[in-house]
Target: IVD dehydrogenase
Amino acid sequence: DIKTTAVRKGDEYVINGGKMWITSGTQADWMCLLANTNEGPPHQNKSLICLPMNLPGIHIARKIDKLGMRSSDTAQIFFEDVRVPCKNLIGEEGKGFTYQMLQFQEERLWAVATALTPLETIIQETIDYTRQREVFGQPVLHNQTVHFRLAELATELELLRSLLHRAVALYVEGNDVTKFASMAKLKAGRLTREVTDSCLQFWGGMGFTSEVLVSRFYRDLRLISIGGGTDETMLSIICKYMEILPRK
Model:
């Protein structure tokens, strides 16, 4: 629920409020700010504003210490009577929520696409490691539970890739792919957790160190089930498009 307000005064907006979980917030020159510009219905009272980060009244409260994605800074930011020209409005006033929802289709498809290569890499590195790591006189990979599991994970990855390709093809043709994008994002979040957890287990004690890629991806890719809309949000959207979501 967005609390930040941008009140029009003359040819300026006066902004008050705060933002949490702002990616690159400690170093960005500009912010695309979603704020309430009137007191109308929640889906019609928000606007997008291009906000320079060097304006008086913008306070970067802290850089958030995170579990993963530690090379990407995330900030908490407050606004106190920040003045920005009305010409910095993006598109039409009151259409901010709609613009944001349209953007989410691309963001969620992007999240799926960015997960594919890391998952391929984790599976291949795990194959290489378990092939050379021996337990009781034979490579760990020779255990059926290990090579069958890796085969299952590789199959799941290809299914996710196919869904992404279908969704992108439909999107390029101008279709509304909200349902498929949400399905792909849901599956990507869950599959990254499944692949990284299963593969880390096959690395044994080494997997519990910070010296190997699988432990980093175990931390970093956990964000996919949260950022850009949680798994639960994806399920609600899918249910809405299936017309099985209970009405309030």
